[in-house]
Amino acid sequence: xxxxxxxxxxxxxxxxxxxxxxxxxxxxxxxxxxxxxxxxxxxxxxxxxxxxxxxxxxxxxxxxxxxxxxxxxxxxxxxxxxxxxxxxxxxxx
Length: 93
Description:
Elements: E1 19-21, E2 24-26, H1 33-36, H2 38-54, H3 62-81
Antiparallel strand pairs: 1-2
């Protein structure tokens, strides 16, 4: 969520059905992110194997991982406090 837009990814379902009873609707959700995004995980593993075979550096770096971590920490703080959190764009040396 940001000041100009919000991105949302719905929970995918294993089957295209929903069980409904008065006042309750239930769907069978996927178990984890690997089941939710199988093609993304396969592409990630293929890209890693290509880097190992060719000796080329990966497109995603440790800095990218740290940036994702910083965003997750900020999102958690925002959720807990109910306020926006500013994220610095500083790049560590």
